[in-house]
């Protein structure tokens, strides 16, 4: 487990560094994203959808405020189109993270964990806990991308990864985009409630799962 945590921390730091760079340069600030979507909305819903998908796909390379973008997708496109658009962007990011890590992740894996037996143990650990990690990854910023890369790096079966990713992303995107669709400038409370509720539910689920795993470890 220690080696798997080591990989998670390194990947998380890499993604976090992109978030810091984006914030320092103001390249992908919430204000900037809103401005792009407002300009796109004046042209066509197709442009709004394209911007949302591109932003959520870019989340794999530069950490972006996923929840905010998803809520804005619902606000500008309505429901269910906003949800479908957000799910598409999230899914493309997940697939790309999985595919790139499956193809090129071995060199990173071997660099971080040089011992063959320890690498095998890390793979085995992810096989045991990976599905649940991906399922609840939306509780923590950056962690969805980390889990997608881990799935590819450890050669997780694609159908298993896909199932966990969709089970995580579809409800998340649907709830957030619906809240955005029923919100307005004068009444932003549905979006605010949705953001708070989603974060709280996911954190509680993650806490319960962590406690359960600790109990399992003690019992064994």
UniProtKB/TrEMBL annotation:
Keyword rRNA processing on entry: no
Cell location: Cell membrane
Family annotation (Pfam families): VTT_dom
Protein's UniProt keywords contain Ribosomal protein: no
Parts of the chain that traverse the membrane: 6-25, 46-69, 75-100, 161-179, 191-209
Membrane topology classification: Multi-pass membrane protein
InterPro entries: TMEM64, VTT_dom
Keywords: Cell membrane, Membrane, Transmembrane, Transmembrane helix
Entry superkingdom: Bacteria
VTT domain boundaries: 64-181
Chief site of localization: membrane
Family annotation (PANTHER family): GOLGI APPARATUS MEMBRANE PROTEIN TVP38-RELATED, TVP38_TMEM64 FAMILY MEMBRANE PROTEIN
Family in the record: Belongs to the TVP38/TMEM64 family.
Name by which UniProt lists this protein: TVP38/TMEM64 family membrane protein
Lineage: Bacteria, Pseudomonadati, Balneolota, Balneolia, Balneolales
């Amino acid at each position: 487990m220690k080696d798997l945590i080591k990989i998670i921390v390194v990947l998380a730091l890499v993604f976090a560094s992109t978030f810091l760079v984006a914030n320092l340069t103001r390249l992908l600030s919430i204000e900037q994203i809103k401005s792009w979507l407002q300009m796109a909305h004046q042209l066509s819903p197709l442009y709004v959808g394209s911007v949302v998908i591109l932003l959520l796909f870019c989340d794999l390379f530069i950490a972006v405020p996923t929840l905010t973008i998803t809520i804005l997708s619902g606000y500008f496109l309505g429901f269910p189109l906003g949800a479908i658009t957000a799910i598409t962007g999230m899914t493309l990011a997940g697939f790309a993270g999985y595919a790139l890590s499956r193809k090129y992740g071995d060199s990173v894996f071997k660099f971080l964990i040089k011992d063959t037996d320890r690498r095998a143990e890390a793979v085995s650990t992810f096989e045991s806990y990976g599905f649940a990690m991906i399922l609840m990854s939306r509780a923590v910023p950056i962690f969805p991308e980390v889990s997608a890369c881990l799935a590819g790096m450890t050669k997780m079966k694609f159908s298993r990864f896909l199932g966990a990713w969709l089970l995580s992303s579809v409800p998340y995107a649907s709830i957030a985009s619906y809240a955005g669709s029923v919100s307005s400038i004068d009444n932003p409370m549905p979006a605010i409630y949705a953001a708070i509720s989603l974060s709280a539910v996911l954190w509680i689920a993650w806490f319960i799962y962590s406690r359960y795993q600790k109990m399992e470890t003690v019992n064994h």
